[in-house]
Design goal:
The chain contains 3 helices and 6 strands. The strands form 3 sheets. A two-stranded antiparallel sheet has the order 1-2. Strands 3-4 form a two-stranded antiparallel ribbon. A two-stranded antiparallel ribbon has the order 5-6. The longest helix is centred in the first third of the chain and has 64 residues.
C-alpha cells in the first residue's frame, strides 16, 4: 500500500473533470425530461377532463335540439329558437372533436418525451461509466506496493518518460525469499521438488540459510 511512484496526472485529472461535467449535464437533461413527463401527464389529465365536459355539452345540446325540433314541428316552439339549438349542437360537437384531438396530441407528445427520457437515462449511465473509467485511470497514476517488501533495482528518476510495460523497480518480499540458480544436468537429475536445500552466499561465508526446492525448469537442446 505504500506509494512508490507518482505519474503525471494532469491529463487524467482533466478527463475526470470532463467526465463529471458530462455526467452533470446528462443528469440535468434526465431531470428535465422527467419534469416534462410530469407536466404533460397533468396536461393530458386536463385534456381528458375537457373532453368529458365537451362530451356532456354535446350530448345535452343534441338532446335539446331534438326536443325543440319536435316541439317546433307541432307548432309549439319558434323555428328561430330551433335554429339556435341546432347551431349550439354543431358548436358543442366541434368542441368535442377538438377535445379528442387535444388528447391525441398530448398522448403523442407524452410518448415522445418518455422516449427522450429513456435516452437521457441511457446517457446518464454512459456518463457514469465514463467517469468511473476516468477515475480508475487517474488512480493508476499512483503506483503502490502490492506486497510487503524492500524496493530494489530502482531504475527510474523523477521526470523520466516511461513506456508501457517498462520495469521501474522490483520488490523483494520481506516474508518469503527464493533463490533462482542454474545447475548442471547431472545435478538436476538428483533434485526433486520439496527436497531440503542449504544455501551458501560467497559474500557472507558465515551465513547459512535453509530452504526447500519449490520448482525446477529443464531445457533440452539438441544439435
Amino acid at each position: 500500500g505504500d506509494l512508490l511512484i507518482t505519474l503525471e496526472a494532469t491529463d487524467f485529472e482533466a478527463r475526470v473533470a470532463q467526465a463529471k461535467a458530462e455526467l452533470s449535464q446528462a443528469e440535468a437533461d434526465a431531470a428535465q425530461a422527467n419534469a416534462r413527463i410530469a407536466a404533460q401527464r397533468d396536461t393530458l389529465a386536463e385534456a381528458h377532463a375537457a373532453r368529458e365536459a365537451a362530451d356532456a355539452s354535446a350530448e345535452l345540446s343534441a338532446s335539446d335540439a331534438k326536443r325543440l325540433s319536435e316541439l317546433a314541428d307541432k307548432g309549439w316552439y319558434p323555428k328561430a329558437k330551433v335554429d339556435q339549438a341546432e347551431a349550439s349542437k354543431r358548436t358543442t360537437a366541434a368542441q368535442l372533436t377538438q377535445a379528442e384531438a387535444a388528447i391525441t396530441s398530448e398522448r403523442s407528445q407524452l410518448t415522445s418525451t418518455q422516449a427522450a427520457a429513456q435516452s437521457a437515462v441511457a446517457r446518464v449511465e454512459a456518463a457514469r461509466a465514463k467517469l468511473a473509467a476516468a477515475e480508475l485511470d487517474l488512480g493508476r497514476t499512483q503506483i503502490r506496493a502490492p506486497i510487503d517488501g524492500v524496493v530494489t533495482n530502482k531504475v527510474i528518476t523523477e521526470g523520466q518518460l516511461l513506456s508501457p510495460n517498462q520495469a521501474a523497480l522490483a520488490i523483494v518480499p520481506s516474508g518469503d525469499a527464493w533463490v533462482t540458480a542454474n545447475f548442471k544436468e547431472t545435478q538436476i537429475a538428483d533434485m526433486k521438488v520439496g527436497q531440503c536445500a542449504r544455501i551458501h552466499v560467497d559474500a557472507y561465508p558465515n551465513l547459512h540459510i535453509g530452504g526447500k526446492i519449490q520448482s525446477r525448469s529443464e531445457e533440452h537442446t539438441s544439435e
